[in-house]
Each structure stands twice: as C-alpha cells, then as structure tokens.
Amino acid sequence: MKRTLKPKEFPFIVVEPGRKLLVLSITRKMLSSSLENVQFHHAVLDIFARHKVLVLRAYKQMFQESLEWVFFVDASKVEALEELLGSLKALKGVLSVEWIGPENNVIVDLLHFPMTSRGGVRMIIFSAETLSRVLTELYKAFGTGANFILYKLGFDYGQELSAHFKKMLAAVSGGIELPPKKVVESFLKYNVSSGWQVLEAFEVSTEGRIEATVRVRELWEALARKGLEMEEVNCDLFRGILAGFFTNLYGMKFKAVEVACAAKGAPYCEFRIIEQVKP
Fold first, then answer.
1. Burial level of 164, CB count in 10 A (0-12/13-18/19+)?
2. How many CB atoms sit inside 10 A of residue 137's CB?
3. Distant-in-sequence contacts of 36-44, Cβ < 8 A, 24+ apart
C-alpha cells in the first residue's frame, strides 16, 4: 500500500498571526537512560503547562556530550517570562537556556547557524521554483550547451555524494562498507526527505554489465523544462548526479540516460544508469 506523504515545514521561521512567539533552546547534559529522558520531557512540559505555554513546533538534536531541545511557542498567555525561564534553568542537568523573543506574529530562529545535514554538511535553502528558473535561463541562454554544463556539474557532485554516503554509512556499520545497492537506496531515500523527488522504483542488475533503473515523481528539475520547446533537453543535472554516484560507488565509468520525463508529459521521470564497458 502506498504511503501518503505529508509536507514538512522547516521551523526556522514561524508565522502565526495573532500570537506572541518565542524561540526557546534548552541544552542539558547527555541523558543516561530512557527513564531520565521521559522524566526530563515531563518536567519541561509541566513547566510549560503551569505558565500556559503552547508549543507550536519542536525538535531535538544531539551533540557529543549534550542534547538540545528547541521549541517554538506561543507565549501570549505567559504572565511571568523571567519565572518561566528560571524554572527551565533550574531543571536537573540543564547547561543553558537561550531564547529569542517574544515577537508578535512572526519569529525567526537566530540561535542556530549554519544549517547542516548528513552529519554536519552545511546546507542552504532555495525554493524549487527559484532553482527551476535558474535552469530555465541556462537553457534559454546556452541551448543544448546547458545539457553538458549541468550534466558535468551533476556528475562531479554525484561522485562527492557517493564518497560521502559510503563513508557515513560505513562509520555507523562498524567500519564495514555496505553493498552498493544499499548505499544507492540510502541516497535516494535521503533525496525524498530533502525535497528532490519522490522515489517510485529502483532496480539494479549485476548480471553481465551493471545496469540500474531509477524512477521518480515530482523531480524539481523537471519543473524548469515545462514549456521549453527543446526535445533534446533532459533532467541533465539529476542524470549527471546518478552517473557520478554510480561511477564512484562501483569504481568504473557509468552514464545515465533519461528515458521518460514528466516535463514531456510522462507521469514520472525514469533514468537508466549503464556501465560503460571498454571496447
């Protein structure tokens, strides 16, 4: 049965008209047990309840020797902010309590920088529409020359991604490298979570030369090509990434071709990744 995917809103800016908003960061020593974790959560929520704090967004992150809880809250009914903060600071194991606000209607998280993913890799956010317009202008300016530029950029980036995923996954597997198929699956699943596309299918055959098929929906790159009267243009950045990823992963040259594209009316984008056998 297909899972219904929900949109995911990153809470670095929260817009809530009519509310007095507060960002709270609570850092404490590493917890020693599940029971201590539950007790700490209950203690924080109990303080929030006493001070009529409404939690709107929340997340937790782990550092080497500490944990941080970040809450975006409605503090409209809080009567004694200093008392609230003092109660949180007094909790067992708490190292620091930092906050931004209160602000009316809109609040931005100015307590964290940079934004990272994949174990500390710095990230920045552009809208899919903005990136699509950039690609559209490249195609308009350079025609099919943009194919080569984007494929090469994607290929180099794909090799970097492959090396990173191999190292990252081996580090959490006792230093043992995972089978290539598992590495690719992890990468494609990560792409779903990071907003690149929805994965429909992934298959790989190692009988004879290595060949793989990747089928995706909602690939943002296809947005850039809708309306462009250029039949020879494909999702060149993504197919370059796939070719580079496989090339680094298997240690031999691969190429990727797009055999169906949503920008040309197909219900999905489908790519074939093929090992380049030396003549």
1. middle
2. 12
3. 40/91, 40/92, 40/93, 43/91, 43/92, 44/69, 44/88, 44/91
Summarised one tens digit per residue, pLDDT across range 115-133 is 998 888 999 888 888 888 8
pTM above 0.90, yes or no: no
Tell me how crowded residue 149 is: count the other CB atoms within 10 A of its CB: 14
Tell me the C-alpha distance between 160 and 149, whole Å.
17
Provide the token pair at 60. 């937790």
Q: Which residues are within 8 A (CB) of 17 and not within 5 positions of it... i.e. 6 or more apart?
A: 105
Give the count of beta carbons closer than 10 Å to the beta carbon of residue 157.
Answer: 15
How long a stretch of residues is the chain?
279
Strand partners, 64: none
Spell out the SS3 assignment of 136-158.
HHHHHHHCCHHHHHHHHHHHHHH
How far, in Å, CA of 166 to CA of 119, rounded?
A: 13
pLDDT digits (tens, 9 = 90+) for 39-53: 999 999 999 999 999
